[in-house]
Amino acid sequence: MSTVMHLSDLHFGTESPPVLAALTRQLAELSPDVVVISGDLTQRARRREFRAARRFIDAVDAAGSVVVLVPGNHDIPLFNPLARFLWPFRRYRSIIGGTAVDMKRVNDLQFITVNSVRRERHASGYITAERRRQVVEQVRRRGEGQLSIVVTHHPLGTTSLGEEERVHQGDVRTCRALHDAGVNLVMSGHVHRPFLLDASEQLLSGEKQSDRPLWILNAGTAVSHRVRDNYPNSFNLLNFRQSDDGWLMDLERWDYASAESGFEVNMKRQVALS
């Protein structure tokens, strides 16, 4: 069994010190095999914010967890149009790491990271056709019995079952390509709202019926005071295990409780991934 902590939207520069301290304690107590950070490490892509994010990543790495991460739209300049157009990821790459499609294997889990940020867009993003092709190539390199997980910043498709009109056509094509390649789970963030949905119910319907789900798991903001829609700071804790019928994911959502000055489990769910 592998344990994964799913964080998103850290937004260093707007972090709440008590929440960050509580998250640090939970990391030590839970000791996950993998920590996934699905973008927006910083608030305004400033050097000091990236350095704070780097210290956090180094601490997670030193504790023995494998770090899997992608940039978010807040990790490129907002108020410098020239830098945003010519060198959008210069600071991210120099302090955090690369932005190309990449893959890490941890036990029987295959994590493929893909950058969904578009320099010409302030907030919204999508996965380009070329990056979609590269992700599919990586997925097809998985070993026998491995579980394929894609990590991106922007949620693919809708963020709830009532928002179909917001679907970007690139998301539809991406979901279909990932599903056809055998991806089981997509992890994302961006909207500061946790949710879990089966993309095959929306994005694969009409063209063909599927007997296999494509789950999209979104994480809220882990430590920023920029919470939305009355959702508190939160993270997802996942336990992956194989059964006779395929892969199972035990999902817990941990919410920050200010009265307790710590995170506590608010939701539990078991999900069949295959």
Mean pLDDT: 91
Major β-sheet annotation? 6 strands, mixed
Instruction: Write out the strand line-up for the largest beta sheet, numbering strands in chain order.
Output: 3-2-1-10-11-12
Specify the oligomeric state: single chain
Strand elements, count: 12
Order of helices and strands: EHEHEHHEEHEHEEEEEE
Q: How much β-strand is present in the residues?
A: 25-35%
Structure characteristics:
274 residues, 24% helix, six-stranded mixed sheet
Write the layout of secondary structure elements.
Blueprint: E1 2-7, H1 17-30, E2 34-38, H2 47-62, E3 66-70, H3 81-86, H4 90-95, E4 102-106, E5 109-113, H5 129-139, E6 147-151, H6 169-181, E7 185-188, E8 195-198, E9 215-218, E10 234-243, E11 246-257, E12 262-272
Parallel strand pairs: 1-2, 2-3, 5-6, 6-7, 7-9
Antiparallel strand pairs: 1-10, 4-5, 8-9, 10-11, 11-12
Helix pairs in contact: 5-6
